[in-house]
Design a protein that fits this description.
Elements (H helix, E strand, L loop, with lengths): L2 H14 L10 E6 L4 E7 L4 E8 L2 E9 L4 H12 L8 H8 L1 H18 L2
Amino acid sequence: MRKGTLCDELDELTRLYDYGIVPGSATIFVKDELNDIVKLDLTLLENVMIVVEVSEEGYKIKSYSPLSGDNIAVSTGKVVQKNLDMPFKSMDNLLMTISPMFREKYQKELYSKLESVHR
């Protein structure tokens, strides 16, 4: 990730995905510009909090915590666990892989944008 755009890109990330995660839940808590690494946490709509590391390697889930014991949180937690430390090329890919609710909202958002282009 280029250092010149790192801060701008991450500030945008904390707001960009509010439609498909718990709104306002994305928070940057580590900015290591020397090593070009950033960590942020966010809460999935399935009620699972994840910590994501952003670096040259891509986007990696470093840890997670189901915030409830309901079936959706538990099953999503299992999917997240299978994807720990796996690099993703984008936050979109990461969230679509682990969060069925994000995937659904993403598709609706994309469809809405496509409809507005054709009007």
